[in-house]
Amino acid sequence: MIDILRDYGLLLLVGQFPNGPVGGLALTLFLAVSGLLLSFPLAIVMGVARTSPIKAVQYPATAVVYAVRGLPVLMLIFWAYFIVPMVVGHSISGITTLIVALVVYELAFMGEVVKAGIVAVPKGQVEAARSLGMTYFATMRKVILPQALVNMIPSILNQLINLIKNTSLGYIISVGELTYSAYQINAQLLTRPFQVYLILAITYFVLCWALGLAVSRLEKKLNQARCTPDVPPPLQRLVSKEATT
Amino acid sequence: MITFDNVDKFYGGYQALNQINETVKQGEVVVVCGPSGSGKSTLIRTVNRLEPISKGRVMVNGEDVHNPKTDVNSLRSRIGFVFQSFNLFPHLSVMRNLELAPMTVAKVSQSEARERAMELLVKVGLAHKADAYPPQLSGGQQQRVAIARTLAMRPPVMLFDEPTSALDPEMVGEVLAVMKQLALDGMTMMCVTHEMGFAKEVADRILFMDAGAIVERAAPDQFFANPQHPRARKFIAEVRRP
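The joint structure predicted for all components is written out below.
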């Protein structure tokens, strides 16, 4: 196994780079993080729409969530693969295809995370803000979302774990991410699939496990901030720093 | 200043407010009391449209509160509301709690908002807590900040919905003192409260509610000495019991 790592470690880490496009673990992380960052603002819109008192806003958002939740990610990738070129009028790269599919997938799931975060903020907060004369949107932006987002951080990291694993489906449309790299290595070695795919599994596991650890730590910290009011709440300060300056 | 005109409110088949007719004059301090479930909180919440009504009209300063054409945000900015559970914004410092509405609603500059906030914090005796966060304060302090936050919009009328009910007994006094000072300054106030000492001392008038209706209205000394309605008599007897 060590020899595989020695000969092909670089391919697993960065793909063909610098002699070709970036791939491997680097591409996997790029796909997951950009999927998260691109879907985040959309997820906020989605979450706000899902809790909207206006039915004409709430129903379409709910329909999108239900539709996406009911489809496998692989199906979304196929749809993106065939439909996005039809919509934009020219062919697109596999990476773009995969990101589009992941963003659609995440905007439904993370939209639900945002919705849960909004709903968890006590009703008194809305009443207080509205009774001061603040509009619905000002209340959302200044009072509800800042509180909801802090509570959502662990769930967002969970979604990142999900995304990292889902990028492996890029293999099916030949995006050169980690799984695809492993597939290439296996195709060259031919006789050692067990070792190659064990390395692949360990890589995914370590990455997701480390993130999972971060999630539990954050949850603990957040709970501490909630339960011990005497200690200045660090995450609340973090959020309000932007508000005070 | 506040007028209720034949106000009814139903929750499904349950009548929460029954034929409310009442006027609160400018500068008047009116205390609303009554047994729990009698509709006190519902009544006060209809004044700034936190609670819709089923029939009738509520007027504040000549504006029809429940008319869909009324700019409810502008109206609410001119009606102070203090909650039982304070509802301070826990992610913002005390100072930011006080600055937020003046800056976002009244479009006051940050420096002026800060000045206003500081003035009010001095008034409620919490200037030294300007940079603290609400969870770090005691209940009494939180409620005083909440009152200051409401005052930062300079409303001509203030509504209090059981402002001391969620407090430890030893913290009730500090909040009542702030309310009393407000009353002395000539603020128009409508208070739902069980603090009969406050009612006796500060109120101009007491409204007693039962089953969604105002069944007795009287000056405090009259109300406590000689309640007319049988339900009010029972209530006073209960309150007096040591």
